[in-house]
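batch_manifest entry 22 of 60
target: DUF4447 domain-containing protein
source organism: Shewanella japonica
requested by: lab member K.T.
priority: normal
notes from requester: please return tokens only, no post-processing; we will run our own comparison against the previous entry in this batch. if the run fails, retry once and flag.
--- input ---
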Amino acid sequence: MAKSNALNAIEMKCLRLSLGLNVEQIAELTKTTADAVTAWEAGEADAPEVAQKKLLEIEDTIEMQVLNTTDGIEALFKTEPKRRLAFVVYPTQAIYTQYNPEFLSSLPFTELYNTAAWRIKKECQIVLEVEVSLVPLEVEAYKSYRTDSGMSESRESRAKWAATQL
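--- output ---
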């Protein structure tokens, strides 16, 4: 990243906020300290190139997830009538880690996954005119639903449970 392309203090803070993360989470992602992140956002120090790259890669991952998901929804509704959709989101890091580990390498915090879901919701509403609800996974209710339905744990089971919560 050339110096002219480096993120300034305001851009660093806006990026953090747009990702839905706090200073401590940015510090963890960039392997630095909360004080260092605060200094970047105050314009007292430049964020290292590697830290900027990491955060921009996460932003790109979320944007690709939004594009891929909305493209899939658009294709689905070319053959089916539009309907409301429900996406599972995760209220805690522990639940996210247990039920959605496949995303941990690219979106390590539940806040990042939930940010992607929020952006998908907004894109679906604005561009596709499809209503999407974000449904926090309630573990006990979900387990009960699976037991009553004879279903095993899967992403599809979570999606079906979420649809029953609308």
